[in-house]
Structure formats: structure tokens, C-alpha cells
């Protein structure tokens, strides 16, 4: 009676879904199988199977079975995706004619082309089946003759395409003035019209911003300090046409005022870029290639101003290249070959300024070569051969500056050689003569174990650590003359820590 599944064409099956809605008059219902009467009549389904309960339930024709389902892909071979999966059946299956005819036309079979073919017939280049909202417009626009970058990428389409709100995208003029005529009229600082700037906006402007740092100065790049300079510093009076572009045109005063060296007197070129950069006027780097002598012609002031050592006072030659290179004036390397004494002739100031130790106060001789070499002034090696005591004569500041332990507070003597040697001041080894800290149970003790009140190392305690009590020791020492219960007396009788 019902026929076989093969007799249910996919069109007939969907017609069944449509036909059952003939009785669903009234309010709009949810679900693909329902239909709102205001959209028109349903399709009669006289040819559907006679068993109405396949789709309907109850005593009225209004209700569809809760378990009713139609596998569109299995029954028709056409899968419904995205928004199509939730669309009402009658939106496609209606009295217009066979649905296959319209499906063969693609998107245009059901959807009106609001663009009126201006954007082509391939709807999927902008739309997908989930929503009609277009996607990737910026990327697609980049394939046109006017890629959207900067501020243009955030501009509403209708600002350029007047019919964009209803899908009309007529070709438009891509010249800047097609949209920016009003901006040109407002441009008075500087006055574009006066300067003749009435077209080709992109010579100066870029899409990122219309003003400020977005100004395109590519024909004369603004780098360094020029990037922050006010336009009027070069373009006086708001006039931009014919502005000179040589450094000296703006910096003649700096050229004339240069004294180190004197540019005018030495006839140095006015092509400032040969030596100067745009970040700062100072710190110029002159190309010394090929210049191997005659430095003093430019650097006489530098020669006369030296103090360490004083070149003029010492009669040092003006052939600067003997000590100086061309990369930097400082860090000169004097050739000390053959100079084995008489250092103080040049280094008197260095001698007078010493503090560790103070050479003049200590009466250290001016024969510098006894401790210093010609490689590095600060790596002096004093020969302590024969010096076995009297260290404090030179090292009193070191003695007073000690903190671990503080020698003066602890009562340490100034006979430094007791603990220190002449190789390294910081590797002192303290010895406790006749004291058990170096033997037996006491050999691994730290100072703090016995000296309870650092940094006063004169004080020490034996009684705080030993387990015996005063009363017990008093009884055991009743035959000891001058016995007193304190650490000093303990140590006097037991210097080796033994009973």
C-alpha cells in the first residue's frame, strides 16, 4: 500500500513535507517542515502515500510527528549545509516548478543578484552557505586596481561606492581627489592651492593618516633630527616650491662657527654630509683615508689642550699619528719602546693622584718602572721581596677597613704578616697558637662558636658550650689555687682543650 522506498522520488518525499502543512493555518511555526501561510499556498500532495500517520499525528492536520525526520542527502543525493539545513522546505520545493531546474542554476536559482552582475556570477567568491554577510573583502579588494590599506581599510564601502548599502558596486575613480576634494580645499597649513599642489596627493600623503608623520617626504628622506624638525625651519613663509636641499643652505652658521677644527680657515668642504649625520651635529666622522700625517693642521687646539700628559710642556712632537689613530682622538697608544726609566717625566700627575697606596705620603719613589709597566698603568706589581714585616706602613687603610672580622675592634695586632702574605691581601690565614681550635674536637669550629660577641674577638666563651655545670666544677677544683669559674681561667689551665 505504501509502495517501496524507490518509488518515493526525492521530489515527492519533499512534497509530502510541504503538503502536510495545508492545514497549519494561523501562526508561524518553527522547523523546516512548517510553512507560514503569508508566504503563499502549499503544494498539494495527492500523490503521497495514503498513510497520513507517516508525517501527521493527532486528530488535526496541524501537528507533525515529533519523530519525523527526512534525510535529505540520503533521499535526494544533495546535502544541505549551513543555513540551507535550517531553511523551510517550501523555500525551494514550491509551485515555481521542478526544483532540479533551479538547482542547476546555482545560487542564482533561488537568490536574486542584488549586485546586478557587476561583481560577477560566482557568489561563492564572497559568500558562503552560513550567512550572506561577505567575508575577506579586504583581501579580495587587493586584487583590484585599488588595494585597501591604512585608513581606507576601515572606511565604509558606501563612502566610495554610493550604492553599496543595497549591493550596488559601480566602478569608481581611484584618484585621491575623487573622494578628497574637500580635504584639499581645507589644506591651508601649508596652503596647497598656493603651492600648486592640486593633484597627485600620493606624492606627499600615505593612506595611514592624512597629516603629521604620515607625510611622504621620500624625495628628501627626513631622518634623525630632521624627522622632528618643524616644516617652517626649512620651508620659510609656508612656501615649499624651490626649497634648497643642500645641508649648507640651512647650516651655514654652524659651518662658519666651527672651531674644532676651524672649517673656514682650513677650507673644509661645505658638503656637510661628508662628516656629519642627521641625528646630531656633533660627533662628526671625518674620512681620514689617505691622511697619514699633518694631523696638527686640524688638531692644534687638541694638541694644546692636552693635560695627561701636557704635550706642550713635555715637548711632545706634533706628529699626532705617532700615538693617535683616526677612529678616536682618545685612547692614544704611545710607543714606549726603549723607555725603561724616567716615567715620571710624563706621569707626575698620575703619581700625585695615587691613593692605594698614596705614593707621596708613603714616600714611594718616583722610579715608576719598579712597579709599573708600559702596557697598563693600573696593573702595577710591587716587589715585596725582603719585606717580611712593617706591612702596616703601607696597608694601614686596609687594616682599618676590614669588616670580617674588623681587626681594630677585635684587637688584632698590626703585624699583618701574622696572617697575610705578599701574594694576595685577601687570602689571610689566621692561626690560634696553642688553642684547640686547630686540633681535636675544636678544629672545625667557626669563630662565632666561641666568640659570641663579634666583631669583638678579644672576648670568647668556653663555659657556654661545655656540658658540665659550675657547681660540679667547683667541687672538682677545690684543691686548685686561684680557681675561678670563667672562660679566661679555663683557657689558662687548658690551652690545648684537654683535661
List the helices and strands and how they pair.
Elements: H1 10-19, H2 72-76, H3 99-103, H4 137-141, H5 177-186, H6 247-257, H7 263-266, H8 296-305, H9 311-314, H10 344-352, H11 359-362, H12 392-400, H13 407-410, H14 447-450, H15 470-476, H16 487-493
Question: In words, what does this structure look like?
Answer:
Among the domains are: 99 residues, no CATH class; 55 residues, no CATH class; 95 residues, no CATH class; 68 residues, no CATH class. It is mainly α and 499 residues long. It has 16 helices and no strands. The longest helix has 11 residues.
Short account of what is shown:
With 499 residues, the chain is mainly alpha-helical. Helices cover 22% and strands 0% of the residues.
Please write the string of helix (H) and strand (E) elements: HHHHHHHHHHHHHHHH
Structural class: mainly alpha
Number of strands: 0
Question: Unreliable segments (pLDDT under 50, ≥5 consecutive)?
Answer: 1-27
The dominant shape is flat
The major beta sheet can be summarized as: none
N-to-C span: 124 Å
- Residue share in helix: 10-25%
What gyration radius follows from the Cα positions, in whole Å?
Answer: 51 Å
Features:
single chain, 499 residues, mainly alpha, 16 helices, flat
